[in-house]
Amino acid sequence: MDNLLHHKLYFISEEKEWVIFIHGIGGNSRTFCLQLRAFKNKFNILIPDLRGHGCSNDLPRPESGKYSLDFVSNDIIRLMDYHQIEKAHFIGCSFGASLIRILEFENPQRFKSIVLTGAVLKIKTSFYLLLKLGRYLSPYINNHFLYTLVAYFIMPYRNHRNSRQMFIKTSKDIPRREYALWLAILEEVKRRMDRLFREPFVSNSVLLVSGNEDHAFLSDCQRYCALHESVKIVVLQNCGHVSNIERYEKFNTLALDFIQKEEERNGKF
Hints:
This protein has helices at about 35-40, 70-80, 95-105, 125-135, 145-155, 160-170, 175-185, 185-195, 220-225, 245, 250-265, and strands spanning about 5-10, 20, 45-50, 90-95, 110-115, 205-210, 230-235. By secondary structure, the chain is of the alpha/beta class. It has a seven-stranded mixed β-sheet, sandwiched between helices. Strand 2 (about 20), helix 1 and strand 3 (about 45-50) form a beta-alpha-beta unit. The two termini are about 35 Å apart.
């Protein structure tokens, strides 16, 4: 298990379906603490810390010394293989949605359904330039300062405080070397997401849950759904980027209903 992501696992039985939660950059498995009570008595649950995040910050580096999107996303496939999870429902937050998008395009046979909150389906130029500036300044500034700046850029309002504070708190655990490795893949992220924006999800069971105050990413989610009508979107009022924290009860209801309807359609419930 030396090269596996650190993870939390809640297993009920082999008859239950799996739900895998994927957090964003700067987060960790605690991103989904408000989902556990709603989900863990109904599904088998797997919540990894992405490489360099949470308790996954001491894994061996790739031989190249650099991260790539394929390398990072394959961490999740290796974890599924280790636990013999053939297929699962996926729930992703922020950049975790980007990883799920890439994973599903490359490995559609591993997916049952997808629920994304604060989905990053395309990176706006302004946000990309902010992160790129952070990469160039990374040798000279505290990495936690940049995470705090990004948190206020994405989640600026008073009612975003809980999400913002959780992001700022969890980002403190990320070592400087990991911070630099993740920033280095930004160009690849932007290039891949720009290309995938023109492509539909392989799965027909995709739900986006966005806040009406998610100024950085909502418009692209709406544009994507207009281009690909099979993808459903729900926009929550008085809510920012991280709806699974800010409006967690509503998010849990939406996600559970969506997944259970997919199970009913396949004769599982």
